[in-house]
């Protein structure tokens, strides 16, 4: 494998950066200086380490894909600054910690997928304000607590996958408003009659 070439740092007009395959090392903090970047894809590499908080500086970013890498650490709260972000997909990594409530600021978000990781804690109620969301996938983590009833106020075309977590308490009736809901493999009770 090879490291990410540092001369990319000087391509200030770059709008799309895709790194797939056998790169090693960590995600360089200087990627946060690529102000015109609209799409950042780092999928299926050997890249380790944390997601740099500097990615929160990419104010034009619309697509952020960081799946199938042995990343660790937590999701930086600074990703909540990405006001143009439409898709945030971080599947199949070693990231842990909780889901930052700041992701509720991503008002343009259509797709949010943070599955197959080691996320703990509860689902932030702030995600209930993501009115443009079509798909929310938090499956295959260690998320506990109650499902926020406010998620039922999201788009009626919404696909919600919370399967294989440690959610407990009652299933909010509001989820009946959504297009598709998967709550399998949790510790949930049936809704009140």
Strand % is: 15-25%
Low-confidence stretches: none
Q: Helix fraction?
A: under 10%
**Overall pLDDT, averaged?**
95
> Mind describing the biggest β-sheet?
8 strands, parallel
Explain what this protein looks like in three dimensions.
With 193 residues, the chain is an all-beta fold. Helix content is 0%, strand content 20%. It is built from no helices and eleven strands. The strands form two sheets. The chain has an eight-stranded parallel β-sheet with strand order 1-2-3-4-5-6-8-10, with no helix packed on it. It is globular and about 55 Å long.
Describe, in short, the structure shown.
With 193 residues, the chain is mostly beta strands.
Descriptors:
single chain, 193 residues, mainly beta, eight-stranded parallel beta sheet, three-stranded parallel beta sheet, 11 strands
């Amino acid at each position: 494998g090879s490291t990410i070439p540092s001369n990319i740092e000087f391509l200030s007009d770059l709008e799309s950066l895709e790194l797939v395959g056998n790169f090693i090392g960590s995600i360089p903090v200087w990627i946060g200086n690529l102000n015109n970047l609209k799409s950042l894809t780092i999928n299926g590499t050997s890249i380790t380490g944390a997601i740099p908080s500097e990615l929160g500086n990419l104010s034009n970013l619309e697509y952020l894909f960081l799946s199938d890498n042995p990343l660790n650490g937590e999701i930086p709260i600074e990703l909540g600054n990405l006001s143009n972000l439409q898709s945030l997909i971080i599947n199949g990594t070693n990231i842990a910690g909780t889901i930052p409530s700041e992701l509720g600021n991503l008002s343009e978000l259509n797709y949010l997928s943070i599955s197959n990781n080691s996320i703990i804690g509860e689902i932030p109620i702030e995600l209930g304000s993501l009115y443009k969301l079509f798909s929310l996938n938090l499956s295959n983590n260690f998320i506990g607590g109650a499902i926020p009833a406010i998620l039922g106020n999201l788009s009626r075309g919404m696909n919600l996958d919370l399967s294989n977590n440690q959610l407990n308490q009652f299933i909010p009736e509001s989820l009946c408003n959504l297009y598709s809901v998967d709550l399998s493999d949790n510790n949930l009770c049936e809704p009140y009659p």
